Amino acid sequence: MALSFAVVASSSSIMCKAINANNHSHLQDLSYIKRAALISDKSAGFTSPHPNFGCVIVTPSVEVVGEGYLYAQGTKPAEVLAVEAAGERCRGATAYVNMEPGDCHGDDTAVSALVQAGISRAVIGMRHPLQHLRGNAIRALRSQGLQVDVLGEDMQSKLVEEARKACLLVNLPFVHRAASRVPFSVLKYAMTLDGKIAASSGHAAWISSKLSRNRVFELRGRSDAIIVGGNTVRSDNPRLTARHGGGHMPIRIVLSQSLDLPEEANLWDLSDVSTVVVTQRGARRSFQRYLASKGVEVVEFDILNPRDVMEYFHDRGYLSILWECGGTLAASAISSGVIHKVFAFVAPKIIGGKNAPSPVGELGMVEMSQALDLIDVCFEQIGPDMLISGFLQPIPDLTPTIPSEDETFAIDPTVAPFETSIIFFYKTWDLYGAFSNFSPHPIQMPDEDGNYVTWFSVEHYYQANKFIGVSNPLAQDCVDKIKSAKSPEEAARMGRLTQRRQPHLVRSDWESVKIDVMYRALKCKFSIYPHLNSMLLSTAGSVLVEASPHDLFWGGGRDGEGLNYLGRLLMKLRSEFLGESSAASENTCIAL
């Protein structure tokens, strides 16, 4: 009996140790997943909002040997950067990624990097939100023999849900865009303790402290655009800049039904960033022409309502929008269901005033039971102020998983993935995102002396060519800065700003040669990457449309009124490649 008891005790001890070891390993997994989510957000404010990817590589001896994050669309995947940092120590290691890889290279670069480096296990925080990418990388990694654990599927517990939520929150704009086809919208306002956003006179500078205003600049830097109404333009004359001395500058958007706006306003100064005015069709045509003469873009709607406006800016590729409007427009946006989160800065001040405006206008509610309750409310003291934040809408549920087109085709072969006669592409994370001039495919092009120079992307080459050959040291300096830009987005920002601010630095023949410059760059790109060439040829018979609704030269425009030169050049290139392929086939037949 004693012997039997000893054996049982020993077995129990071993079992407890195994359970403790598993729990410890489980907690480590969640810790590193949270770390991946944290670092994925590192470029916020420096680049425009994009899918946030972070990767942490950990050895079996529990040592972090490599980390990486996606800096901007069109740059190296997080997984590639982490593998490069870890080097040979990747062998047998575990890769933690906050979101399933879904790069825009067109050749599964992120997956290939993990497989070729010898990673043995991958822990993934969430599946990719986009239907055409969801599940692809997970299947690819498993097919290569890697153990893949997905939070909420292969790993489940309360702690797992907390870690998974961290992964969702860092990509909330991307998740909302995929689920609801509108950008993630945040309503921000500052009010006094008695609920006023201005005095009865309209004076509002300043309700909140400087520390709170600095936080607002951070919120702006995380947004694609900032929206205000006509009243805000007339009463406050805001600049709506991020004021961080560089990096991403959100577009300014003014919603005005009547277009009753002043001729002189800070928002008409486009030296740093663009402004878009959205209005009712036919409103003040003469003022529309005036704004156009200042370079301000005007977009008309038959009926101006926040839902239609947000769907339009979704089509422009925007992920996140910050609303800094008055109460009337805020109420309209909330009623339209386009506001997802609220940031309310409450200052310890009382201003009073029967006619002093409040943050949100009439919502048509008559009983307190109708009030909208915020979800996941947070309180944070910022200097003397209190920041109260929370969600008006729950985080979209991405489960059950919607099958991708390829999965649907496997179930029903009559549904072909590429049967559409018109193929749209725009952002690099789109299904055909590799067609974008922002895609991360370096090209080698000859310089003025015939020497081949490597450019990080087609966009780098295109923007630099605006200033190449100009006999001015400033022009050459601009070329050098564009060439070394960390992302296509930054290259485009540099080129466009310089062109706008210093037009004398732009080569005199630019308008006549820019199409040829783009075509030569595209031809190089689709010639040196076989998988891109195959992707382009697979679209034979389809019309290719660059789906930017606001670029009327390279894109197709909002209602098809754009010239779509990028799509045209790709179709021209496709015809050229198909012709070469046919000629090669004929020569092969003759040789036989």
TrEMBL record:
Primary site of residence: plastid
Principal EC category: oxidoreductase
Gene Ontology BP terms: carbohydrate derivative metabolic process; riboflavin biosynthetic process
UniProt domain CMP/dCMP-type deaminase: residue ranges: 27-149
Alphabetized InterPro entries for the sequence: CMP_dCMP_dom (IPR002125), Cytidine_deaminase-like (IPR016193), DHFR-like_dom_sf (IPR024072), Eubact_RibD (IPR004794), NADAR (IPR012816), RibD_C (IPR011549), RibDG_C (IPR002734), Riboflavin_Biosynth_HTPR (IPR050765)
GO MF annotation list: 5-amino-6-(5-phosphoribosylamino)uracil reductase activity; diaminohydroxyphosphoribosylaminopyrimidine deaminase activity; hydrolase activity, hydrolyzing N-glycosyl compounds; NADP binding
Annotated transmembrane regions: none
SUPFAM superfamilies, A to Z: Cytidine deaminase-like, Dihydrofolate reductase-like, YbiA-like
Localization per Swiss-Prot or TrEMBL: Plastid, Chloroplast
CDD domains for this protein: NADAR (cd15457), Riboflavin_deaminase-reductase (cd01284)
Identification of the protein by name: Riboflavin biosynthesis protein PYRR, chloroplastic
